[in-house]
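Sample pair:
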Amino acid sequence: MQNKEERNFHAFYQLLNGADQNYISELHLEAASKYRFLSNGSIALPNVDDGKEFRLTNEAFGIIGLTDADIMPVWRVVSAVLQFGNIDVDTERRGGEQAVIKDDSVCQKVCHLLGLNVVDFTRSLIKPRLKVGRDFVAKQQTKAQVRFVGGVMLLSSRYCFFALIA
């Protein structure tokens, strides 16, 4: 969770406040208040225009040699990470700790953005296959373990994003 006046990954705010209708449609974007990873909604910073920063970021991508066709996948990943926080993970009713995804609509958005198969994706979240010796076994995850994967995706995307522009 964020502190009350703290923002998350600045690229989220740039994308949500600077995207044109094409981006909004293609990246399945909604208002900042709809995203769990933005628990404080859209926090404005003094002297920061997120829409302008979005345009400047895209211009910077161009300066380092990325084409429009290269730039959209970067924002697809940013949107997918943002969407990932909204995957509704619950536990099975029978008193167990096994994670379940009751509604895969957010998973469908994430998979569309990343070009993944939704059945394989959801299965990998709640019941990943692990190699044990020569065999593969499916390990049922808990709700906390699935949430942890979301946090790792967020941190990894930040690292990759900055590595790309550094």
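Residues 10-165 form a domain with the Four Helix Bundle (Hemerythrin (Met), subunit A) fold (CATH 1.20.120.720).
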